[in-house]
């Protein structure tokens, strides 16, 4: 993803969020995607976002918050393993995608620190967000944009529903 400009990364984030918001709130019976990950967010020649792979998706009637679980390592809300999948599980998975758009994982870290969600949250808590961002993101984004994106990622990755 080093070739993606910060503006294109922002556009991918916004278009993806719009699509998932539509699934959760704009349709008569909400739809949980249940498999949000970067591999299921495709780009056309103009970097327009296309959401794919609805094989794990489920309809969620308004009175049903809990669904049978589908384990998506790295993208799955840890609380979903115990409580079942919900729209919050999709939000958590989307937070991991946002973190991926902002940075590249440091492969020199020990395995326990290579999980992107906890690593990103720790970098925000320890006030070292700018040390973890991809160089192109850091160069092209304003400090306000980067801080806002970092806060949004942390809010999406909040494990409390």
TrEMBL record:
InterPro entries: Kinase-like_dom_sf, Prot_kinase_dom, Ser/Thr_kinase_AS, WAK-like. Residues 1-161 form the Protein kinase domain. Gene3D superfamilies: Transferase(Phosphotransferase) domain 1. Keywords: ATP-binding, Nucleotide-binding. It catalyses: L-seryl-[protein] + ATP = O-phospho-L-seryl-[protein] + ADP + H(+); L-threonyl-[protein] + ATP = O-phospho-L-threonyl-[protein] + ADP + H(+). Pfam families: Pkinase (PF00069). PANTHER family: WALL-ASSOCIATED RECEPTOR KINASE-LIKE 16, WALL-ASSOCIATED RECEPTOR KINASE-LIKE 21. This is Protein kinase domain-containing protein.
């Amino acid at each position: 993803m080093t070739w993606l400009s910060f503006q294109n990364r922002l556009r991918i984030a916004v278009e993806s969020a719009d699509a998932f918001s539509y699934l959760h709130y704009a349709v008569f019976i909400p739809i949980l995607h249940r498999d949000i990950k970067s591999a299921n967010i495709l780009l056309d020649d103009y970097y327009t976002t296309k959401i794919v792979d609805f094989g794990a998706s489920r309809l969620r009637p308004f009175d049903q918050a809990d669904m049978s679980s589908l384990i998506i390592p790295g993208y799955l809300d840890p609380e979903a393993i115990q409580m079942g999948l919900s729209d919050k599980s999709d939000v958590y998975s989307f937070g991991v995608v946002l973190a991926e758009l902002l940075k590249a994982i440091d492969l020199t870290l020990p395995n326990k620190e290579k999980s992107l969600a906890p690593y990103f949250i720790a970098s925000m808590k320890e006030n070292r967000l700018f040390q973890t961002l991809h160089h192109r993101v850091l160069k092209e984004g304003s400090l306000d944009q980067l801080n806002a994106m970092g806060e949004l990622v942390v809010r999406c990755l909040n494990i409390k529903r």
